[in-house]
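Record type: monomer structure entry
Structure origin: computed from sequence
Chain ID: A
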Amino acid sequence: MKLTGGCYCGAVRYEANGEPLMQAQCHCRECQYITGGSPNMFVAVAPDAFKYTRGAPKKFARKDLEKPVTREFCAECGTHVVTRPNAPLVVIKVGTLDEPAQIMPKVAIYTIDKQPFHHVPEGIPSFERLPQR
């Protein structure tokens, strides 16, 4: 599968090639902050399957956490493009894809933080935290 996308203003562009490692919606509080209150829809790929093709993102990691994730976003328009967790993954935000309909969440995670107005599609597995490997 080939995925392409970028930020709202077009200053940052990327592509990812290969099979997704995970397609999910995350309900954790951190994602709610980033999205403005909604679950975060994402597709995870291997780091070697992802590359920026235009521009370079600004990076942010909280200094007060022991193992913070790194969030990468456009310094021009502020679009959150990817997250790099403490695992060999690049977590691409579905809203930044050129064709978001290519991705369908197959699992809901961190539902322990789910808000009453969040929707988990019927039939997809949901987990209070991360599913066991």
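Annotation 1: The chain has a mean pLDDT of 96.
Annotation 2: Residues 53 and 83 are 17 Å apart (CA to CA).
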